[in-house]
Structure formats: C-alpha cells, structure tokens
Amino acid sequence: MILADEAATLALGAKLAAQAGAGDVITLSGDLGAGKTTLARGVLAALGLEGEAPSPTFAIVQTYALPETRMPVAHIDLYRVEDAGEAEELGLDDLRFDHLLLVEWPERLGAQMWQDALRLRIEAAGEGGRRLTAEVPPSWEGRWPPA
C-alpha cells in the first residue's frame, strides 16, 4: 500500500482505529522518520485524543484512558530498549489485557513477542510518500485492509 503523504498516513490510522479493539497489538516498524509515530497519532486522534500525542521515545510507554480515548491505549516506543527482558519490567503483558497496544520498534523485543499482532512496516517511497506492508495474522483477517 502506498501512503502519498502525512494526511494519508493519518487517515490510515483513523481506519485502523475503527477496526482495533482492546487486546489487539499493532506493531510499527521502519527507519527513523518513516512515519510510525504519525500512524499512531492517526489512531489516537480517531479514538478521541484531542491535540497531538507526544512521541513516547523517552517515556517508552504512554497510556491513554477513558474518557481521553474511547478505549484504553498504550503507545509504546521501544527504540531505547536494549534487552528483551525489559518487557516484563514495563508491564506490557498486563497492558495487553485491556489496552490496544501500538508498538513502535517491536523488533527490540524479538520475534517471539505478540505472534498475533498486526505487523506494519513503513518505508520511504519517493517524493515524500511511504510504502506500507503488512503481515496479517488470523485475528486480523477480515479487518485488513481497513475500509
């Protein structure tokens, strides 16, 4: 899928928000500046967050709860995580029970994490556009691509 610009990335985030629910995991991979946080911001805005969501690069985990968003959401940026063992310290498994998880840099925790996640990869694609590829698990069949 080609995302022509930032507006298209935000719009895809809004469509994902309509399909996602608590307990779902959406992973976002790509180089620095690829658009991972922009896509997450599109999801959060569509779920009711007013204003721009901060990047959780330094906080690592930024949570949002009712009524700030329609459902609990954890926006997670694992860029600074150096060891997969840190996931337990962050309480990510606990958040999974009742939050939608938006996870940037999921590869920092290894391939075994979140086998049922919708895995999105964003890459530069000429003239400011982005190429998005998806690995769609059975739990997302019928929800991807979002309408």
Number of domains: 1
Shape: globular
CATH H-level superfamily title: P-loop containing nucleotide triphosphate hydrolases
Main pleated-sheet profile: 7 strands, mixed
Q: What is the percent of helical residues?
A: 10-25%
What's the end-to-end separation, in Å?
A: 13 Å
What is the count of β-strands? 7
> On the 0-100 scale, what is the average pLDDT?
91
Summed up, the helix count is 4
| CATH architecture descriptor text | 3-Layer(aba) Sandwich
Our Rg estimate from Cα atoms comes to: 14 Å
Q: Record the strand order, biggest sheet.
A: 1-7-6-2-5-4-3
Q: Assess the beta-strand content as a share of residues.
A: 15-25%
CATH topology: Rossmann fold
- Sequence of secondary-structure elements: EHEHEEHHEEE
The low-pLDDT segments are none
At the first level of CATH, what is the class? Answer: Alpha Beta
Query: Which structural category do the helix and sheet elements fall into?
Result: alpha/beta
Structural topology:
Layout: E1 2-3, H1 6-19, E2 25-29, H2 36-46, E3 61-64, E4 73-77, H3 86-90, H4 92-96, E5 100-104, E6 118-124, E7 130-135
